[in-house]
Model the fold of this input.
Amino acid sequence: MKQVFTGISELFTPKERLEQAALAVQDGRFVWVGTESSLPDDYRSWPRTDLGGRGVVPGLVDAHTHLVYGGERLAEYLQRARGENYEAILAAGGGIYATVRATDAASEEELYELARARAHIFLAQGVTTLEIKSGYGLLPEAELKMLRVIRRLGETLPQRIFPTLLAHVVPQGWEREKYVQMFTDELIPEVARTGLAEAVDVFCDQGAFTLEETRAILEAALVHGLRVKLHAEQLAHTGATRLAAELGALSADHLEQATPEDWQALAQSGTVGTVLPGAAVILRKPFPNARAMWDAGVKVVIASDHNPGSSPLFSPWLAMQLTMSLGNLSAEEALLAHSENAALALGRKDLGKIAVGARADFVVVASAHALEALYRWGHLPIHSVFVAGAPAL
Ligand code: NIG
Ligand code: FE
Done:
């Protein structure tokens, strides 16, 4: 499978900007990237697709989603809009627990169909890779049910799927210690054995898991050869970011309450810092200081955190726009944070970029200006989306 794409008015790799660019793709990977006038003779005889003078950016990577769930939480959203507090709703057995009940009531088939439809909305906006977490099952069999749905999504969707086991909250009626022990001694080994997840994540926060519980869960994950990630410093400051850095986690996510010392720890360890604009803005929390993190040397990532509670956000472009306006990133930085940097949150260096050897996932913008999709708010100019060099829509 050999193909050349020409007629690209402007291309972001994302780190570099090219004008009048061309791409050569073979067997699903980029084999040549440059200006059309410098396309080597060898490639000139390959089948050619003219993109019509449009802009091109890398396929976006959404490195933090909770895409699989039953039910919705519109009533809670309306309550919160009137001033009720997310933490209090969770403590009273609503919030995440409400989604746990709705997810339990749904069959695997229903959960699959719901998530498939959501994934398509992301694909149409150029998201070619999705991380998807479990975490609305809580009980071992219910977590495995979610992970099976995620595996099926990976087998059937055009997108690349990265599955993560999430320790979300202690189920109602369980002793905390017993639950953490079940997680470390039974669930993690089972998930590692069956290959149902590549990473383990913990919601380390007020109302969820303590720092000590989080350490126990993540250390068990590492023993079983799984990567680790963290929900860190969202509602309260817990020290989770420094734990993530210490354990060599792929990412520390949220960071609303993170301090300059936390940013330093991330910058030094290489653990990326993921900003989730949906959750920050919708829950009316402080917006993470993406500018200061970036300047401190953190690899900043932007993700949707799509979930039915804190972030019913379906738009990677809105996530980037919010981080430009409220986190003070430039448009070019925001794009990098949702593509090449975001792939690092999944341990992947071959995704989210247009470079020789990388997977040929890219987005054709319905404009000669590749960044026009960041300029227009709420009206998305996307022409087409390619995964592994093939049209995905
Ligand atoms: O990333 N913070 C914890 N977990 C999710 C929210 C889940 C929910 O509200 O259902 C998050 O924001
Ligand atoms: Fe989350």
